[in-house]
Amino acid sequence: METYEKITNFIKKICNRDDVPLHEPVFWGNEKKYLLECIDTGYVSYLGEFVKRFEKMIVEFTGSSHAIAVVNGTAGLQVSLRVAGVNPGDEVITQPLTFVATANAICHCGANPVFIDVDMDTLGMSPESLRRFLNECTEVRNGKLCNKYTGKKISAVVPVHVFGHPCRIEEIIDVCSEYGLPVIEDAAEALGSWYKNRHCGTFGEIGILSFNGNKTVTTGGGGMILTNDSELAHKIYHLTTTAKVPHPYAYIHDEIAYNYRLPNVNAAIGVAQMEKINEILKNKRQTAMLYKQFCEEEKVKFITEPNHSKSNYWLNGIILENREERDKFLEYTNSNGVHTRPIWRLMHKLEMYKNCFKIDTPNSEWLEDRVVNIPSGVR
Ligand SMILES: *Cc1c(COP(=O)(O)O)cnc(C)c1O
User: Fold this and answer.
1) In what order do the strands lie in the sheet with 112-115?
2) Ligand 1 centroid vs 77 CA: distance in angstroms?
3) Domain ranges for the chain
4) What is the DSSP letter of 355?
5) Residue 184 CB–ligand 1 contact under 6 Å
6) Tens digit of pLDDT for each residue in 185-202?
7) Would you say 92 and 154 are in contact if contact means Cβ atoms under 8 Å apart?
8) N or C: which end of the chain has fewer CB within 10 A?
9) How far apart are CA 96 and CA 114, in angstroms?
10) Is the CB of 102 under 6 A from ligand 1?
11) What is the reported pTM?
12) pLDDT one-digit tens code per residue, 215-264
């Protein structure tokens, strides 16, 4: 309890406030100016200059060949899975330790999530667990990779860069290429995170980012689909803009599609936020380094960026002794003005996903009982 009091006081001190939220957005720059400009142009929906500018800024920042702005990260994942060839009744491999949106997007395609384990250090999908599942639970039937136990076709893999910490994405992609599976990276939390000097979300066939209010950069609500494949980029653009066939005035659509493009109003905020991205990342890293040092001194386990990677430290996390200690910590901090929260309940423990196919996930279970997020917003 003494340690918890110390941590609480330390957080209040470095944040210079008595009531510390987990993560708040900051509007440091041209947000208001661009919003007014946007309204003055009359282009408030998806047509407009801010959308193009925002996409260009993301292309330049991430190094992705294409970036398509969408209404949110979940919708981005859904469309990405669909253009990658995920069909109703298929299975998509992902991790149980993630925000619920990952599994929801799979289900929005009519597909079923399959849960495999994560790595202890990255919290992201374990390439070994992936290989074990593919070796032991799948076989090729009529030219299709199928789950031997459910008979369902396996059509994609979705690893997650949890809290902005890059997962072992290259190894995951190597395993997937052996099996001919496309990788869709859930990089929703990883804007400003790099694995071996390459931005998260640019390794797989497709990657997605989120700009929800609690993420590193926000547009209120929003997302971005990243891909280096021009053909996929074209399909994504088409499918997110109601599949309208380009024409100066006629309304012709050639498939049942979505209205998922990001409105210009939201993009206006995004452009202003991206102008400050390096300052935001620097500030967040400083906070993480203060936590790291403090935790070393106090013998508390702090989650740091894995080898070969640079994390955006979106949400800082510590690992407590066990479930009881975690609950005591949550109770103490939250009743003393410091907002903390446990990592997500594992997906297969949620009512709607309890019957999904899964293999053993001991690391996920261990982490679920012990990981807690501490305040991580820009100070
Ligand atoms: C935030 C988040 C999403 C979804 O993004 P939204 O923009 O909120 O729809 C998906 N996956 C993960 C891991 C996230 O953290």
Assistant:
1) 112-115, 91-94, 154-158
2) 9
3) 2-27+277-345, 31-275
4) T
5) no
6) 999 999 999 999 999 999
7) yes
8) N
9) 9
10) yes
11) 0.98
12) 999 999 999 999 999 999 999 999 999 999 999 999 999 999 999 999 99
